[in-house]
Amino acid sequence: MAQFLDLPIELLPLILQHIVRPSHFAALCLVSKSFYDFAVSRLYERIYIYAWHREGKTKVLKLFQTLASCYRLALHVRQLVIRDFPKEQWGSAHEKVLDHCLRGLRNCVYLRSCTWTRDGSLTSEILEALVESPQLAALEINGRDGWDYDHRILTRFTHLQRLSIIMPSSRVVGILPAWFTVTGATLRHLTLICKTSTLVTDSLLSRIAPSLVNLEQLHLIGCPKVSHSGILAVLTGSSRGITTLGLEGVSPAIDFAELVTQSAQSSALTSLRSLSLSCSLADLPSLVPLLATAPLTHFYLSISGTSSPVHTTSPTIIGTTINSSRDAAHLSVTSLSQFIQTLIDMHGPRLIRFSFSGIGLGIRDIRTVCSGCAQLEDLWVTLRTSSEIDAIGPCLSQAQSLRTFHLQFGNFTRHLIESSPPQSRSRSPSPADAEGASPSNSSILAYLSPASTLSLVKQCSATLVQFGINTRVWQVRHTIKSDGEVKVDVRLGLLESPEIPEQFQVVRT
């Protein structure tokens, strides 16, 4: 009789490609020498440490001790994401930690991507060690240099393809023109994340644009001094064409119509496939010319500064009559629905991802998206009112290619939390709760009863692999049963991937 260990060794890579949880790879390394040879590379290939990880700082220390002392394991590292780091170390303890970090980084000779964003943890020595990485092509750092590192070292990274800078200081912003003259030829993706910074301006973008000839993706977040003129300089300066554009928290005076008119002469927007914007409800009509120019497949929109009648169930009316408030709310809802219908009419056949946040959508709008986008794989929306929750399932069933769905609630979330007994909120329901609970069960699964959550999932296409409500995300598991006929049992399980779900990320591609 054939045994498990008789499995042809050639099949192992095909099996392991479906495994994502690090603890599972660690267990596979203990099966046999053959399993170890294949699993250990997957275990160390991508390493993530986040600030919310239990004992994250201790894990950082142990990680770099391992990488420093075991060159063989460090050779497997391709991506390193360090978002937590012990900064309390002083004296000899700090020197020991830094020594492990430097030796560990130098041992990672095949490192291609490094993220180091913990404020105050990046040093000149660490940057110099990363400069020596021969294959490093992607870098994400905290741009607040302070007294921690010499910003001039950054200009020695000359072959980057992806660069993301968080909260850049005036010194870091000041060296960008010189830095991009040496790495601009290879740079494909550029992200600048600020907090309402006045340092990133149209003038700066105009200065760096001539160096960004091969840029394909641009994300600007929290840059209120950036308008259409600076963006246009980068768009027209790219010979490859910008395929992904993210503009969130830029100047409210940005003129999208002027941007479209000026870029039409150089066809700068014809390559655009992914667009991420934040704007007010009143700005929606001005976006239509921009939508008409680009063949979009990914669309993200965050509405800011909305009035309460648009997205709450019990608006507060101040200084106006009830009738006028209702009229304003009706007009807002109508303009929103018209905008969504226009978007679907233009891009529905090719749209793969649709994300709408900051304002609640009605069932009619969600149905428009699901029925009008045959290739839709990712849908992330906010529901306008709780009374429409039961109608979402039939809408989702129309999206036959749907893979991820994430739903946000507005005041409904607070209402459910406040009305739930304390014991219902004190524990995190297990996936098994989703099978036996009745709709009237007082426990809630991410602000929705377990039975209702599972009911929504079962109405979705069999292609669905991820389902989320508010801050909770589950992996959808389809188990095939054989008892006379083949049946598919749908269950909710813990998310296995160590990566942050993209709907929660600041930058989305």
UniProtKB/TrEMBL annotation:
Superkingdom as given in the UniProt entry: Eukaryota
Compositionally biased spans, kind Low complexity: 419-431
Segments of this protein annotated with the region Disordered: 417-438
Pfam family, one: F-box-like
UniProt cross-references to SUPFAM superfamilies, sorted A to Z: RNI-like
Domain F-box: 4-49
InterPro entries: F-box_dom (IPR001810), LRR_dom_sf (IPR032675)
Designated name of the protein: F-box domain-containing protein
Species name: Obba rivulosa
